[in-house]
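Extended Data, record UDP-N-acetylenolpyruvoylglucosamine reductase
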Amino acid sequence: MDIQHKIHADYPLQSANTLGFPCVAAQFIAIESEAELVAAVTYAQQHQLPIRVLSGGSNVLMAPLIDGLVIRIDIMCQQVTESADSISLALGAGENWHETVRWCVEQGYSGIESMGLIPGRVGAAPVQNIGAYGTELKNVLTKVRALDVAKGCFIEFSNNDCEFAYRDSVFKRLPGRFIITEVTLRLSRVQDSSIRYAALQNYFDQHNITQPDMQQIFDAVCAVRQSKLPDPAVLGNAGSFFKNPVISESQYQQLKQQWPELVAYPDAPGFMKLAAGWLIDQCHWKGKRRAHVGVYEKQALVLVHFGGGELQELLQLANDIQASVYAAFNVNLEMEPQLFPMT
Ligand SMILES: Cc1cc2nc3c(=O)[nH]c(=O)nc-3n(C[C@H](O)[C@H](O)[C@H](O)COP(=O)(O)OP(=O)(O)OC[C@H]3O[C@@H](n4cnc5c(N)ncnc54)[C@H](O)[C@@H]3O)c2cc1C
């Protein structure tokens, strides 16, 4: 298949990353099928171009110049298979995540209603095992289909094969190796009433909702997120900039003595997950602005780009935040968005 006519040289990506940093890709192609993907990868390999995979650009830190071939996955597909107790939903990697969640709620398919308004596309969702309000993608994902770039063939990953962890997966650990083309979810017509949405309780109280259904959970999530997080269309950002650090129970106990207000949640046995936003807040970063970048005034975990700046400014700010949190708490903050390109 000849795809050279679809390749653009010196392609601007400023509007293709939610931080809105200026960026130009040496070569760019948007592919709409697996056949086009194979042709694009073959082209890159023949011309010895590094391959960079892009979806919605909401979790990447784009360098000003990106060498190689940027491949954006625009594969669209939505296939439903219903059985007595569950719904299997196969989705093309290019489908919009939030619109998918909205559609599932409308159909009465439960399982992802608390992950509404997460920006980006379906194909990127397994990469960092997206999650919100106590739910993670790994809870509903059954299968991922991806091109193995090293072997040149398509393979299927079971949930286990994806090696999911908190904001992590095999796809994130081996960047560039697998290009996801399809994701299959297992949803249910019956809502799981055992899930508690403590973070949404205020909203439910205010709206006199005692037993929220999936539409009400979705509405609550969207309303709460809109009140707390900046809209990337208005203010450049990549959502949470740092992961919540996981520390040992003994380190947690030491910190708790010094900081009785410390915000933390139980993680794996023997470990606690600290609220990174709280740590940053204690170091007085919330609302701080440095020229074109800053820390969001309502949520210290979100770094923002006011426009006219460059990635380097944001990385310097992130570095200084990491240093001050380490100095105060002896805790390392790990960045959540991926440097693009990573090498
Ligand atoms: C306002 C805001 C709120 C957010 N809230 C949340 C949240 O609550 N929870 C959460 O988990 N995340 C959140 N995020 C982060 C982000 O939305 C998710 O990580 C999302 O899944 C990224 O999707 P994307 O399509 O934009 O991916 P991109 O940013 O384009 O890509 C992300 C990474 O995945 C790789 N990738 C993309 N597509 C593929 C593919 N098809 N195959 C292989 N690799 C691929 C890219 O190379 C890159 O390394 C938020 C971001 C913003 C801006």
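Summary. The chain has a mean pLDDT of 95.
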